[in-house]
From TrEMBL:
GO MF annotations in UniProt: ADP binding
Domain Disease resistance R13L4/SHOC-2-like LRR: 557-915
CDD domains in the record: RX-CC_like
Protein's gene: LOC125511319
InterPro entries named among the record's database cross-references: Apaf_helical, Disease_R_plants, LRR_dom_sf, LRR_R13L4/SHOC2-like, NB-ARC, P-loop_NTPase, RX-like_CC, Rx_N
Domain Disease resistance protein winged helix: 431-509
Organism expressing this protein natively: Triticum urartu
Protein name: Disease resistance protein RPP13
Length: 918
């Protein structure tokens, strides 16, 4: 097994020590230069080790040497961090009084002592480095044969094909077989509860098959649900999810209840007593969990059906029939393989590619996950030499041993192809429990706070992190949870906000993470023995036996701590974590003001996530956290931040409650790149915000908007030259002719403008100067010709959501006509138009529009002939249209006539779009 490069965060710190800021003595600078050069050389050797072919793992001695380098780099990084923090904190806020002069004088002496200490530490580590270097020569680490690197793609591949391939290829035949098993039997047995268990090893598509059958049959049943169990099941959570899905209206608050397992089981049995239900219980790992859930599934005579999926044959045999999941056929494997590489419409590849692809598919063994992983890897380069090298590195496994270990060998190939920073970012995902859905944005900020993102010229750390994330999706190592609706505004997102890690990928990275001592988790996969020095700790357990394990662990080396809800009560005191640089206590309700005082003494913190805790006050000592970059205090009870908050000059991300007052008088917050849920109570706050020129994302709410806000609002936008996303609530956007139509210099990179509850008299004319603007949510008093002209001429506009508040009846002949000229909307793919849509689509209009949503209402002009003749037949790319018709019961005939008119237009549309009604 190749070793992970662990010096990624150390080398930048060694380089920064050489800067004038730390004023090191010449001797110390020389020693650090030596260490930096040696560690760079060792890192190069580790990279070479990590690129060895999987079927030629490094020698045991090489692995021991790599472990020694890793431990050495950890210890060196600890010493460097301690030095940096002491230098910074000993210089905090000294007054200009006589006593302040004394303090500053003593501080100079203290810093001299600190610098002497770092010199001593460095010399001690230097001797260890020399010993490690000698062993490197002895074990001939540099002679390890390197695997040639491959070029990575720059952009995220579209997931639609991936989704269709995994859900459809080879699934139809299997779903028919499974449906037949559920329906077979005589009339008497058809009334009994019937269970079928789908069994097979990870990656075969058990969940996909079960879901396909569930979607196909659920319309024939009174109610249904689809729940996942996972490796470490939370039975109460599973039962609550089951109830909520069975009846979302009746059990909409079930997650807030205090019911235990017994009460939940009783409630489910009572609800299902006289109902014909279909339920899928996905991913069962042990008999005990299944037995608990099985108790809730009452055996009535209504013809109910239950489908389970599991990797374990003994669990599958517990109840009902067993459907053994088979791999894809050779034909289906080829279809899936070639579609992902070449696209849906592919021609037969070159003969040499066919030969090597057949060898690769043999090793994939018909496992969809393996095929998707390898084909994503091969999609970058269509030449037989590259494909042959990938094939040789795959080793053996699936063709002889179809189990989890064989699956890992397939996934290893994609993992080892990643550059070192992406390997670290992927391994970091081992902190999440199985089936955990996480938000893309927050994961990227975690990477930033952990120091995993390598800076690039001209790009923010978050932007680089997005590229990392997209590449992991591109390698099929992260799954996106695509949702049609975004933020309540009715648009699908190009980049899904919610994601998860496939079980088999999680299994792989957990194994690697344990081997590298990268992440220690409690509550998930079990350890044979815990590491002596824990560096990163993730808790997703509430078991008291795990509290005993925690009490025996030495927390003095922990750099990162993530706690999932109820696990916090098991922790030792936070003071036990002196080197903590990343702390995530999201939704830990036990965290209060007592803990916030302790947190403010954690000088090493760079990442602090307190979202959903019970903290009510941030103390003045927050200024101690001079290294803090990422801070989230949303959904807390905090109402105001202390003035010392301004001293957090390295902060790049801040989310607060929408009612918190944030001090902006200081220029020290100029590093901020994302500011969420900030409240604006006066025009002066807008002026202060305009000085945060590094902002990429701003989410603000204006209180008691009046005319005095208008000019400061424009000045604010004009100053935010790097702004890419703006969400604003509470203001009334108006046009002042004296201000001109442009924002100068303005946010020329603005891509998203979201103002769902801010009435605008018209579309702001300054939008016309924003060539990157692609996503708009806006509320207008009325819609005029000039508004359509501004929006239609935006060169990058792809998503438009308009809510028109006032209806001013006008003859249909006076409606704006959207055509190929005038209002071209050349890039628009999604349009949502709320309240009395009065537009006509002429031939050639909106040639890229795919999704359309119209709220037509019941206008006073309904009697006009042709009111619903909107020209929908002219939208040549339209795939889906959703229309809301608001008719009273006594006018149902008119609604049917309107619907008939709309359907006629869609039948004439060459693309045959689907029609959804509300």
């Amino acid at each position: 097994m190749a070793q992970l490069v662990m010096t990624a965060t150390l080398l930048p710190k060694l380089a920064s020590l050489l800067s004038p800021e730390y004023s090191l003595h010449r001797a110390a600078r020389g020693e650090i230069m030596f260490l930096k050069v040696e560690m760079e050389s060792m890192q190069a050797a580790l990279v070479k080790v990590s690129q060895a072919p999987i079927d030629q793992p490094p020698d045991v001695q090489v692995k021991l040497w790599a472990k020694e380098v890793r431990d050495l780099s950890h210890d060196l990084e600890d010493s460097v961090d301690k030095f940096m923090v002491r230098i910074r904190t000993d210089g905090l806020d000294k007054s200009h009084t006589f006593m302040g002069f004394i303090d500053r004088s003593l501080n100079l002496l203290t810093k001299a002592k600190i610098r002497h200490t770092i010199l001593t530490d460095v010399r001690d580590i230097k001797s260890r480095v020399k010993e490690v270097s000698k062993r490197r020569e002895t074990y001939k680490v540099d002679t390890v044969p390197a695997r040639p690197t491959t070029t990575t793609t720059d952009s995220l591949r579209q997931l639609a094909l991936y989704k269709k391939a995994t859900e459809l290829i080879g699934t139809e035949e299997k779903s028919n077989e499974l449906v037949e098993m559920l329906r077979k039997g005589d009339e008497a047995s058809a009334k009994q509860l019937k269970m079928v268990s789908v069994v097979g090893f990870g990656g075969l598509g058990k969940t996909t098959l079960a879901n396909a059958v569930y979607q196909k049959l659920k319309g024939d049943f009174d109610c249904g649900a689809f729940v996942s169990v996972s490796f470490t099941p939370n039975i109460e959570k599973i039962l609550k999810s089951l109830l909520h899905q069975l009846d979302k209206n009746w059990y909409h608050n079930i997650n807030e209840s205090n019911w235990g397992e017994a009460e939940l089981i009783t409630e489910i049995r009572e609800y299902l007593r006289n109902k014909r239900y279909i339920i899928v219980i996905d991913d069962i790992w042990d008999k005990s969990a299944w037995k608990n859930i099985r108790c809730a599934l009452i055996e009535n005579e209504c013809g109910s059906r239950v489908i389970t999926t599991t990797r374990i044959l003994d669990v599958a045999k517990e109840d009902g029939d067993v459907y053994e999941m088979k791999p894809l056929s050779i034909t289906d494997s080829k279809i899936l393989f070639y579609q992902i590489i070449f696209g849906k419409e592919y021609e037969s590849p070159h003969k040499q590619l066919i030969e090597v692809s057949e060898k690769i598919l043999m090793k994939c063994g018909g496992v969809p996950l393996a095929i998707i992983t390898i084909s994503s890897l091969l999609a970058e380069k269509h030449d037989s030499a590259h494909w042959s090298k990938v094939y040789r590195s795959m080793g053996t496994g699936l063709e002889n041993n179809p189990d989890v270990n064989g699956m890992r060998r397939i996934l290893y190939v994609s993992y080892y192809d990643l550059p070192a920073p992406l390997k670290i970012c992927l391994l970091y995902l081992s902190l999440y429990p199985e089936d955990c859905i996480f938000k893309r944005k927050y994961l990227i900020w975690k990477w930033v706070g952990e120091g995993f993102i390598q800076p690039k010229q001209g790009e923010s750390l978050y932007e680089v992190g997005e590229q990392y994330f997209d590449e992991l999706i591109n390698k099929s190592l992260i799954q996106t949870m695509n949702s049609k609706w975004y933020g309540g505004f009715g648009f699908s997102k190009k980049k899904a906000s919610h994601c998860r890690v496939h079980d088999m990928v999680l299994d792989l990275i957990t194994c690697l993470s344990q081997e590298e001592n990268f992440m220690t988790t409690l509550g998930g996969h079990q350890y044979e023995s815990l590491p002596v020095k824990v560096r990163r700790l993730s808790l997703h357990t509430s078991k008291q036996e795990d509290a005993k394990v925690l009490s025996t662990m030495n927390m003095s080396h922990v750099r990162s701590l993530t706690v999932f809800k109820k696990s916090f009560s098991l922790l030792p005191p936070l003071s036990s974590f002196p080197l903590l640089s990343a702390l995530d206590l999201t939704n830990c309700k036990q965290v209060d003001d007592h803990h916030s005082m302790l947190i403010c003494s954690m000088f090493h913190l760079r990442y602090l996530w307190l979202y959903g805790t019970y903290i009510t006050e941030i103390p003045r000592e927050i200024a101690n956290l001079q290294l803090l970059q990422v801070l989230d205090i949303g959904e807390t009870e905090i109402e105001e931040l202390p003035s010392t908050f301004e001293q957090l000059c390295h902060l790049v991300y801040l989310r607060v409650n929408s009612w918190i007052r944030v001090p902006y008088g200081s220029k020290n917050l100029k590093s901020l790149q994302e500011l969420k849920s900030v409240i604006v109570m006066s025009p002066s706050v807008l002026i202060d915000l305009s000085g945060l020129t590094e902002l990429r994302c701003l989410d603000m709410k204006v209180i008691e908007w009046n005319k005095s806000f208008e000019e400061p609002f424009r000045r604010c936008l004009s100053g935010l030259i790097n702004l890419q996303s703006l969400k604003v609530n509470g203001c009334h956007i108006t046009e002042d002719p004296e201000c001109g139509n442009l924002l100068l210099p303005g946010p020329q990179q603005l891509r998203r403008f979201i103002a769902p509850y801010c009435r605008a008299s018209s579309v702001p004319r300054w939008m016309s100067s924003l060539s990157c603007l692609s996503y708009i949510v806006i509320m207008l008093n009325t819609l005029g010709e000039e508004d359509l002209h501004v929006l239609g001429c935006l060169p990058s506009l792809r998503h438009l959501n308009m809510d028109v508040c006032r209806h001013t009846p006008r003859q249909r002949q006076a409606w704006p006509v959207i055509g190929a000229t005038g209002y071209p909307f050349r890039c628009l793919t999604e349009l949502r138009y709320v309240q009395h849509a009065e537009v006509v689509f002429a031939p050639g209009a909106m040639q890229k529009l795919q999704i359309l949503e119209l709220h037509l209402g019941t206008p006073d002009t309904l009697h006009q002939s042709g009111y619903f003749d909107l020209g929908l037949e002219n939208l040549s790319s339209l795939q889906q249209i959703t229309i809301m018709l608001s008719f009273s019961k006594d006018r149902m005939g008119e609604m049917e006539a309107a619907e008939a008119t709309l359907r006629k237009a869609l039948d004439m549309n060459p693309n045959k779009p689907t029609l959804n009604k509300w």
